[in-house]
Structures are given as C-alpha cells and as structure tokens.
TrEMBL record:
Keyword Transferase: no
Name of protein: Trace amine-associated receptor 13c-like
This protein's record includes keyword DNA damage: no
Organism: Nothobranchius furzeri
Keywords, sorted A to Z: Cell membrane, G-protein coupled receptor, Membrane, Receptor, Transducer, Transmembrane, Transmembrane helix
Length: 328
C-alpha cells in the first residue's frame, strides 16, 4: 500500500499527483549550497564585468587576442546570471513556467557553445602567433577577429535554436510533472550536440596547443643559445618572440583550466543514462566555476588587468580621455 505524499514534499501542493517532488536535504546542506552558488554567481558577474569594461574602455587593449578574451568574458559574465536559475531550482522545482524554462535551456546551451567556440579561436590565435609569427600581424587583424567572434556567437545561437526547435515550439511538452524543467534531444540530436559542443572543439584545442607548446619549447631553447650574441635588431625580435610565448603560456593556463573544469561534466554526461544525475553533481558546479576562475587567472598573470581594475575601482575611467591611458 502506497503511503500518502506529504504536501510539503511537492513543488505545487495544490496539484497533488501532477506535481513533481521536491529534493529534500538537511537545512545545513541547503544553506551551504545556496551560499556557494550565490557567491560563485556574484563573483563571476563582478570579475567578468571588470574584464569587459577594461578591454572595451582602454584603447591600448584593443588587440585581436584581447578581443577574444573580451568574448570569453562576456560569455562567462552571462554564465554568472545563469547560475541564479540553478539557485531558483535548488530544491528540484521549477517555478517560472514552461516558456521561461525553454528560454533558459536554449540560453544555457548557446552561451556554453559560444564560450567553447571562443576557446577554439584562442587556440587558433596562439597557434598562428607562435607557429607562424611572420604572418600573424598581417593575417590576424582586429577586424577579422571581430568577424570570427561574431560568426562564432551567431553560429552557436543558430545551431542550438535548430537543435532545440521542438522544445521551443512546444514548451513543457516533455515534462513528466509540474515543476520540472527538462530538455529533450533524440539520439542523433544528442550526438550532434556532444560532437559540436565537446568532442570536436576539445580535439581542435588539444591538437593546436600541443603544437604550440612543442614550437614554444623549441624557440625557447633557440633563444637561450642566441641571447648572449644578439644585436639591437635581434634584441627587438627576441623580446617580440618572448612576449608571444608568454601570452601563449598564460592562455595555455586558461585552456588547461577550462579542460579540467569542463571535461568531467561532459564525460559524465557521455556515460550517464540519466542527464539529471549529471546535472546535479559536483561536476556541474565545477563546470560553472570555470567562468569564475578565468578573471582570477588574468589577475595573477596580466599586469594590464590589475592596472585597469585599479583605474575602474577608483573611478579614474570617468575622466575625459581616460580611454587613452597606457595600461599595458
């Protein structure tokens, strides 16, 4: 004989058997999750907003590589807001309706894809800069970089609007009870999403950065053997090469952290039979936390970011002509 369900265990008590059940946790655990998610959300939004303001405002930072960092910061900034939706459904219940659920899911897929696409562009940028330095400044221009970023975001949006078309056309069609927010993908659609959002981009990133590090190590050895006998002209070339390799190493850290944060989640999704299990695990939190870590990496390795933040927080950017300040 089935025991009657306590109304406190339901997302919508007035709907009785049609309502989903809440996820029950000890109050201390719920409070810990709430504080953790809220802190990550606020920190992600604030830190990435500082990156966006820095690169957008200061003219000296308007370089192809920094525009890619700007694109990544925008996607990470939006991820900070998406975390708030996770806080709303912390008890396993969705209260914002079917249309908002469909919009949230599309935004989640779209922003994630744009972030991963930007990582691929960063890898391509460093590959050309380190492996083909003589062609870099003539081929990789600010305008071409902006165009690539625009295409990346547009293609990510179009792809996931088409992929989730049924979920958008019929919001709530695939839910099994009231209070559930789910996305449905058939086997073929799921494979396409996994390939274009994870397998393909990760393969490109690993292959390109493997080549970058091989060339960087080779160039470092070559420069060490020549550093004692450089001319003035050679010294300039030496500094240029050193600068490009330093940038490659810093962005390499960003890429490695990205892989460490996202691979566990996608691997679990690949192996799991139930998507809900993977989405509620620690790997899901780690996946979002990557958006918080990126600006912290810039603080550690980029002097220009520390200078920019100081100018922003002291409101120096409000002064006329502050955009021409040399923060490099």
């Amino acid at each position: 004989m089935m025991q009657p369900v306590n109304e406190n265990e339901l997302c919508f008590p007035n709907l009785h058997n049609s309502s989903c059940r809440r996820t029950t946790r000890p109050p201390s655990t719920s409070m810990l999750i709430y504080i953790t998610l809220s802190s990550i959300s606020v920190l992600t939004v604030i830190l990435n907003m500082l990156v966006v303001i820095s690169i957008s405002h200061f003219k000296k930072l308007h370089s192809p590589t920094n525009f890619l960092l700007l694109s990544l910061a925008v996607s990470d900034f939006l991820v900070g807001f998406l975390i708030s939706f996770q806080i709303i459904q912390m008890d396993g219940c969705w209260y914002l309706g079917d249309v908002m659920c469909a919009m949230y899911l599309v935004l989640d897929y779209f922003i994630t894809a744009a972030s991963i696409g930007t990582m691929v562009l960063i890898s391509v940028d460093r590959y050309v800069a380190v492996c083909f330095p003589f062609y870099y400044f003539s081929k990789v221009t600010a305008e071409r970089t902006k165009m690539c970023i625009l295409l990346c975001w547009a293609s990510a949006l179009l792809f996931h609007c088409l992929l989730l078309k049924e979920n958008l056309q019929n919001p709530g069609r695939f839910k099994t009870c009231y209070g559930e927010c789910v996305v449905f993908l058939n086997y073929f659609e799921g494979f396409l999403d996994l390939f274009f959002s994870f397998i393909g981009p990760i393969t490109v990133i690993i292959v390109l950065y493997s080549r970058v590090f091989v060339v960087a190590v080779s160039q470092a050895r070559s420069m060490r053997s020549q550093v004692a006998a450089v001319t003035l002209h050679g010294s300039v070339r030496f500094k240029a090469k050193k600068s490009e390799m330093k940038a490659a190493m810093i962005l390499g850290v960003v890429v490695v952290v990205f892989l460490l944060c996202t691979c566990p989640y996608f691997c679990l999704v690949l192996a799991a039979q139930d998507v809900e299990v993977s989405a509620s695990s620690v790997t899901f939190l780690l996946f979002y936390f990557n958006s918080t870590l990126n600006p912290l990496i810039y603080v550690l390795f980029y002097p220009w970011f520390r200078k920019s933040v100081k100018l922003i927080l002291t409101l120096q950017i409000l002064k006329p002509g502050s955009w021409e300040t040399n923060v490099v």
